[in-house]
Amino acid sequence: MNFSPRVLKVTKATNETPSAAFTLIELLIVIAIIAILMALLFPAGQSALNSANKTTAKNQAVQIATAITDYETEYGRFPTASSTFDTGLVNQLCTTNNPRGIIFLEANAWKKGKGGTNSNGFCDPFGSTSSNVYSVSMDTGYSNSITAAGTTMNRRVAVWTTNSTLRALINSWD
After folding, report:
1. Segments forming the whole domain that contains residue 42
2. CB atoms closer than 10 angstroms to residue 33
3. Which of 13, 103, 110, 160 is deepest in the core (most CB within 10 A)?
4. What is the pTM of this model?
5. Residue 10 lies in a domain
């Protein structure tokens, strides 16, 4: 048998360990990827917010129309009002400032994205200001025909608002 001697290499032991830190380029790439993902999600988030505001406005328009109808059922006449849900109509429907002291519609103070009442009247949830008041049309002549938002229809009460940013008509009769 032939034995050949093995040569063992002895290496010098070091205390150096490989670095586990990110390099600057890796960090910049991660930040860029996060920025791209956020840019993709922002329109979806804005769309969801607009959809929520439209749903809130639609719900409020239906509630207002129902409150006006309830007032008419209770007193045998429509509340005195202008063509908007102004402070006079707010006082008649949202407070006990009517002959029998009935609250027909509960409304909170106006907040962006929520709508509500303020010194202008009952405002929709759109925008950063609280100046877009719901429009109201009532069949005070009992002809079973009203014109609301440029449309003539066979209704007794119609409530609507127009959001110019979304170019959307939100109404109580759809």
Report:
1. 24-171
2. 10
3. 160
4. 0.74
5. no
